[in-house]
Structure formats: structure tokens, C-alpha cells
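Hi team,

Below is the intake form for 2-oxoglutarate dehydrogenase E1 component from Azospirillum baldaniorum. Please confirm the fields before the structure is written into the shared record.

FORM ID: S-0412
PROTEIN: 2-oxoglutarate dehydrogenase E1 component
ORGANISM: Azospirillum baldaniorum
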Amino acid sequence: MSANLEKTSFLFGSNAEYVAELYARFLKDPSSVDSSWNGFFRELDDDSRAVLNELNGPSWSLEEGTLANGALDPIAASLESIGAPAATNGNAGLVAHAQQVYGGISHQQLRAATLDSIRALMLIRVYRVRGHMNAHFDPLGLEKREPHPELDPATYGFGPGDMDRPIFLNYSLGLETASLRQILEILQKTYCGNIGVEFMHIQDPEEKAWIQERIEGGRNHTDFTVNGKRAIYERLIAAEGFEKFLQLKYTGTKRFGLEGGESMIPALEQILKRGGQLGLKEVVVGMAHRGRLNMLTNFMGKPFAAVFSEFQGNPSSPQDVQGSGDVKYHLGTSSDRDFNGNIVHLSLTANPSHLEWVNPVVLGKVRAKQAQRNDLEREQVMGVLIHGDAAFAGQGIVAETLGLSELRGYRTGGTVHFIINNQIGFTTNPTYSRSGVYCSDMAKMVQAPIFHVNGDDPESVVHISRIAAEFRQKFKRDVVIDMVCYRRHGHNEGDEPGFTQPLMYKKIRAHGTTRELYGKQLVEENVLTQAESDQMIQDFMKKLEGEFEAANSFKPNKADWLEGKWSGLEAAKTDDERKGNTGVAIDVLREVGNKLCEYPKDFAINSKIARQLEAKKKSLETGEGIDWATAEALAYGTLLVEGNGVRLSGQDSGRGTFSHRHAVMYDQNTENKYIPLNHLRPDQGPFEVHDSPLSEAAVVGFEYGYSLAEPHSLTLWEAQFGDFANTAQTIIDQFLSSGESKWLRMSGLVLLLPHGYEGQGPEHSSARPERFLQMSAEDNWQICNLTTPANLFHAFRRQMRRPFRKPLVLFTPKSLLRHKLCVSSLSELAEGTNFRRVLGETATDLLPNEQIRRIVVCTGKVYYDLLQERTARGIKDVALVRLEQLYPFPRSALTEEFARYPNAEVVWCQEEPENQGYWAFVDRRLEGALTSIEHKASRPSYVGRPASASPATGLLKRHNQEQAKLLEDALVIR
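The structure came back. Fields below:
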């Protein structure tokens, strides 16, 4: 045992009086105690220090029974620390108080009583910290935990003979005095019953005190009325009955049932009901597939007939709505629920099998809806996330999402997290799927209170859910409910869980359902009779039979994807032009541009930025030399003055990774911010720019969610380097690329992915365009690699100026941000201009079109490398054609360019390796364009880097050699 541990045991044991006096000396004069004790007191652990700090730093006399230097003696200080009145007449006053409290005791007895109080306070505090370790969460009783030694009264010097004498508590548990037996009974009931609470890790004193009062004040006693108990029972009947009905009608069909976790349904009802009383108007829910069908019907109000119809193989949307659809336990819905006049709107976000990845999507939707309601206090719209235990502990997106909770650009006023703790992950036991004690340990990173509760005690589950809703509404912070339960049929209804968990499933097969156990309890309590219980079950099953019959003729009568904020928008047209009206009057462009160059007179601007603003002013005056950053800002600014919002986030987005944007300027003396885009016109739309945490997955998910809820705001996410988008690949694959096809959910999210080969190595060159192009189908999004600021301007504006929304994946430049040739004129942004999917040859000194021997087709930054190399070599018979939009593929526009050069061969040139980049995507499409006009060249040939496992070399010399070779191969005809 370590020295400190020995001394801690000594402190909390029978020698506490001696140690207390030593501690008092230490507080008065640290040098007055032995050096070993001096070091011990300085290094006390949090629990010990917290208890000793409750003594409020007393100065103890060195002689018993006397006052030294006006300080109270040990007895006085101890009594004062636990709430006794301060002495005014020396020991006589203390003894009088002790006699009043304890019935007349000696000085020595008074000292013993004081030590009893101190030890009891230690015991009470440790129950608040560790009581959950002895609680009864598991309905199956499988987890055998030894009693925690710190919860043993003997640890604090109490023995069997100390159980019944009175101890002064100063109302610590709501009691002035209590016996140790009474104290333990209260603590066990409060902290070690079917509810366990973790809250002492919270640093905010008000939050911690609120939870303590709420838990101890109610003694975790649920005290439901007869009507309240019957309401809970009705919800359990519905939850269990629906699952049993599905098992009967569709035996063995996967549905990922809730069986074992039915208490979730009345718990969520309580969150809505109490939340509505506290100002809640709207709830956005995210969850994986476990229990989703139960959620859709018994909580969201989706017709049972609709679900039965889907089980019969019918689509969930009208026949005339396009899309691939999805399995029924991934789908979302929305509805309104009425709680005694409080209408709460619910929306369940569609989610793939990637479990927790819906989390940031929900938060983004919540943030957008709060903005729409001007909900500055964040009390009207709330997110509820329903998790699995193994997924909550195992998936990193959970930590990334929690990390957003208190950030200015992403906070939503707290989320209620509800964990359906099945005590298993597919077939993996908890001891093999997490390192912590609880699946919820991750939530401590944001100091969220965590309520553990036994799922077979529905009253406790509902009680805790009410407290969680109140905490969220009061403190606007995350809160976690960990409902420990089980799943009756294994991972799915066709599974045989006995293969891997034979003991657990022997126990489950012999274990009554939550509804059965609660029904028995209510009969014993005379809340209802057995006959009433049976009748309630029969009535519900009869209702399901009627719904089942109705499913045969059920037809969805509408799709809800273009309602609410989406009203007025429509499905995308098949016309491949779809340019939108994106040009802007010159006077408006100059008005906005000049505002972008202004800042307050007393603002100490950075001298380099001041020079940039002067150059920007000049380009606006002359109408020439509009660079990338200016065109981007003009696109945002003109959308803002037209009433749209703009939200941009990402790592370093305020300044821009490459110091080109400076959307946020900082006073060089005070660091106060100035954002020119928020000072254009009084009635403009809102502009937000946020430097995000170093998270791609959660932030992309958040912005995708924001775009789902707010179609009238241009929502953009910018990667620090395009390569970093790979850590958000699940959001891109499962939501952004396929969400419209699977779930009929449009998004106008823009991904800005810096891309280009400048010798910066394999992780700072490629945004992996091949991945995005491989997922391109069904008109699901737009993939662009632009070469002019004007095209950037129009690309952004067409996101808002068309009657539909599509994601835009934009490979943005790095070196081109300051390239002298990468500029546009103001006239190219003016009325009558628009986005150009293909840019043909612009040089005027080439040979006539019939004498052009080669067309080099390319995209992005390599165009300028080719242009400069062609000029340097004096080549006149090679034309350069830029493919600005890769998907939807602009076949007609490209065909027109090919037709201009009937005698030319066609080369596709890219910087990326042959197995990456665009070649695999454009090869056959270029061939199709050529054969459609019977061009001399029937197929394109490839020029670029050879196939490679790595995106790029990390050696600058080798990079330069590779770049020189591909330019020569593209331009020199041998």
C-alpha cells in the first residue's frame, strides 16, 4: 500500500481525530507539521480534499478546550463546518448548543459527535460519487459486481454498534439529525436502487446542486398517480403488442425489434410532455434501427397500416416519386403531437445502418430550425438521440458530436441522449466492446449528467426522463439516460443468439416481459384488475388486426419532402442545362464589393489585409482582375442582399487555409472581429462563418443536417485540404450522395475541397475525385473542378437560384488563388451571364480549327500548367478544352467543342495517377461524345501519372519531373 493510501485509510479510520488536528495545524502553518504529512495534505485526492474543504479552513487551537488567537477550537470549527451556529461565549456556548442538539453530553462526547458528523458527511458524499456502483440496473442480474468498498461505513470508522445513535447532518439529506441506519437506508434508496446517477464530475456548482436536490429531494421516488401508472402501462402494451403482432404476421422477418426496451416509449412521451410544459415546440429525433418501427408508430404516429403495407413489399412513397427507397427500419417521418394543448412537432431523421452517424445530422437540423424560429434561448427546438450501448462506446462519431455541444457555431442548447443498453453489441459482450465501466463514459467529456436506470422499472425510467428534460431546458446542456435492458430475439428476428450468449438467453427466455412485470405490479397495487389488464391488451390487438386488414389497400397519398420550408421547390428537371438566373447587375456587384472593402474607422486592420483590400477596390473600379476570393465574396454578398442566408464552416474557414478569404478580420490591438459580409444592407440575410473543431465527420454531418432543414441558406463546408474529406466518408457515402434517392431528402450542401498537385505530398494533393465520381448517378449531385472565378461565382449562386437543391462537390484550387492568369472580369458576373460547364479554347493565335492536330481535354489547375507550357514551347496546333463540370456530364456542350476540330486527336490529361482522378469516369463518356458526331478520333487517349497506390509523391524533385513529363506528353505530338 502506498504511503498516501495508508494515510488516507488512517484519516478515514479510527484516527480521524488526530489527523483532523494535524490538518488544522497545516492550514494555519504548513511548516508546523512533519514534511511527510505536509506533502500528504498538499496531494490529497479530490474526495478527501472536498471533505476537508468543507471544514472551511478552520484554525484549531493546540490545547484542547481553549481558544487561541480568537480562533474556535476543533469542536467549534467542526460544528461550524456542518452548520452549527458559531460560538460567541467560548466552549460554554458550544456545549449549550450540543446539549440542545444531543441532550446534554460531555466535552469528549461532543468531540465524538463532531467526528460522527464529519464521517457521515464523507459517507454521504461518496454515495453521491460512487453510489451508482452498487445500484441495480440489470433486469437480468447478469452483471455480478462486488460491493464498492468506499460505500462501506467501516471505511469511515463506523462499526456495528454505531448504527442507531443520532448524528448531526445539518440537513444534508433534508434531515437535521439521523442515525447511521437511517442515513444508509436513504442513501441506498436514493443512489443504489434501480436508478444510479453520475453527476459529481460536473464542475458547475449550480448544475451539480440542482441534480443533487432533484434526486435527493424526491428520494428517487416516482410517486405516479393512478392515471399516470395506467398511461405508462398503455404505452407498454402498445410497444410490446406491436412487436408481437409483427412476429406473428411476419415470422422471422428482420425488424430489429425493441423487445426488452419497451420502457423507452413512455420515457420519450414524458420528455415531450414535460418539455412542452417548459417551452419546447419541436423535437428532432435520430436513432439507429433498433426499435425504429416501434418509434415510428407508437411515438411518431405513423399509421400501423403503412408499416404493414411496407412489410408486404409496397413502397413508402407514392408510385410517381422517383428514388431507390430504403428498408423500412431506416426511414424517417414527421408528425405533430398534442400534449394537453402543447403542440410539439416531431421529425425522425432517416438513418442508414451506420448507427451513430445520424447524430451530427440531427444537431445540424436542430440548429437550422432554431434559427428559423429565432430561438435565441434554444428552448423551443431540441434534439433527441437514441443510441445503442456498444455503438455509443465504440463509434468515434459520438465523441466528435459531443465535442460540438458547447461550441459557438454548433451549439444547440443541449441534446437528450437515450441509450438503449442491450448489454451486447451484435454478438459482443460489453467487456469486449469497451474499456470503461459504462457505455456512457464518453459523455463525461462534456460534463453531461448520466442517469443509469433499470429498463424493467418503467416508472423509474419515466421519472428519470422527466428530470433529464428539465435539466436540458434549464441548463441548455447535454444529458444522458442509460436504460439497461436486453433484446429478446438477439440481433434480429432471424438470429440464434444462443450461439454466442447461451447463459444470457437462457435467462431471457425465463424472464417476464417489462409489460408483464409492470402489469403484475399494478394489479398488486390495485391500480387495475387482471381483467382490466387483459381487456386493454385485447383491445390493442384488435386495433392492430383492423390496421392489418387496411394495409391491403393502403396507398401513400403524398410525399412529404417538399413541404414546410421546402414549399415552392420542386424535383430537378431533366434539362441538362439548368443554369439558373445567376448574373447580377454591375451596380449591385460594385455596391457589394465596396462594402467588402470597408471597415470601422477605429478598427486597427492588419497592414497586409489593408493592401489586399486596396487591390480589390481597384479591380472593382476597373472591372478587371477579379480573383478567386473576390468572386467568392461577391457570390455570398449578392445572395445575402437578395435575402438568402450563407453559412460556411470548416477548419480555418474565417481566414481561409491559404490566407485568401479573410471573411473575418481581427483588430490588431483588441482582436475584436469584424465581418464585412454582415454589413452590406440593413435587410440582408445572415452570414455565418465558423472555424470548426478538427473534426470532419461530425462537422460535415452537422452542415448536411443544416441544409436539410434550411433550403434558403447556402450551406458550405470547407476542408482544410481536400484529402481530409476522407474522414467524413460515411456522411458523404450514406447521406450526401444517396439521401435523395433513398429518403427523398434534398440537400444543397456545398463541399469545398482544396485539390491540386503542387508537390505537397500524398496527403495534401488529392481530394480523391475518383470516389465522388464513382458514386455519381441518378442526378444525385454535381461534381465540378473550376478554372475561373466567374464560374465559381455562378456555381455558388445557381445553388440558390434554381427551384431545386442538389449537393455540389467542388474541387477548389490552392496555387490558383493567387495565379495571375486565374482572374475574371466583372462583366463575366453581370446580368446575362451564367455558369459554363465546358470552357473551350480562348487563344486567338492558334492555327485554324481544321489544322488543329490535338485537343487536350482537362479539368482544374492543370489547365494553367498546360497553357503556360504551350505558350513557352510556341505550340499552335493543340487546343485546350476545360471540363468545368464532370457530373452531370455535359455531353452536348463537349460535343460542340469536339465538332470545332474535326481533324484532331483527343487526349485526356490529368495530374492524378491513372487509377485515380477522373480518367475511369470520363474515358467512355468522352468516347460517347466523339462517336455521336462521327469524329475522326473515336477514342481519347490518356496522359497523366502512372497508376499508383499513393495519391502523390512526397519528394518535390520527383514531383517536378512527373509534372514536366505529363505536360510534354500532352502537348508534343510525335
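SUMMARY LINE: The chain has four domains: 3-194, 226-555, 586-829, 841-971.

Thanks, M.
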